[in-house]
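Chapter summary example.
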Amino acid sequence: RTPKSIREIMDIPSSTCSRNLAAISNIGIRDKPGYDWIRLLEDPNNRTRKLITLTRKGALVRKMLVETMRG
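The structure predicted for these 71 residues follows.
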């Protein structure tokens, strides 16, 4: 996925998307560390685009959420 695809799926402004992605990445916002659930990587085929990947920590969070939702 890309930030643009997330923004389109969620139908939110790009500033909101960027802020929320920063919060759950290793970047963080407003002097607060991020959760490090995702990494924003440069697309090797298009240097102006970022790709989103889950970190190990993010994969664990995803697994816990899926298990919780399944009951």
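To summarize the output: The mean pLDDT is 96.
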